[in-house]
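re: ur question from yesterday

yeah so i grabbed the chain u mentioned. its 174 aa long if i counted rite. heres the sequnce exactly as i have it in my notes:
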Amino acid sequence: VMILIGGIYSARQLSLETMPDLEIPIVTVATVYPGAAPSEILEEVTKPLEKSIRNIEGAKNRTSTSSDNVSILILEFEFGDDMEKAKREVEEAVKAVNLPEAVQPPKVGRISFDAMPIMRLAVAGSNNGANKVDRFVKEDIIPEFLSFYMGKNTPGRQDFIIENLRVEEVLEES
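ran it thru and got these structure tokens back, copy pasting raw so excuse formatting
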């Protein structure tokens, strides 16, 4: 009976997550070169970055993609490797690369299920123009959203990151 009660108590104390904090042993380098064709990206961005990271210790696989406007490098490590250390080493390596002036600084990141957004929102307005919609989102929706959720006593993390706020004006053809 004590074992049964202890088992039930223990089971109720376990927290379940839809997306558990799993550390994926991958480091990515994303570099944007506005207006550049894939061949330019390859020669002026991807190849110099590949050269800088080829001696990163512990990387078992390296892949790269050169597309319009962007270069993506992916370094795969073994499970159990110190990924913070690996990320720092990659950051140091890519900082030393001389890239064309128009190239945005490379962004080094890691893949984590914990970093994925749990909610995405889209707002549309009719005949108001992009500036009015932008102002409405920034002055009304975001503050209301944050005040509502920050006041809740919800378990777990409460990180609110508002990024990539993009306003596009879509003109309908008559």
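noticed a couple things. Strands lie at 23-32, 61-67, 70-76, 107-112. also The first strand starts at residue 23 and ends at 32.
anyway ttyl
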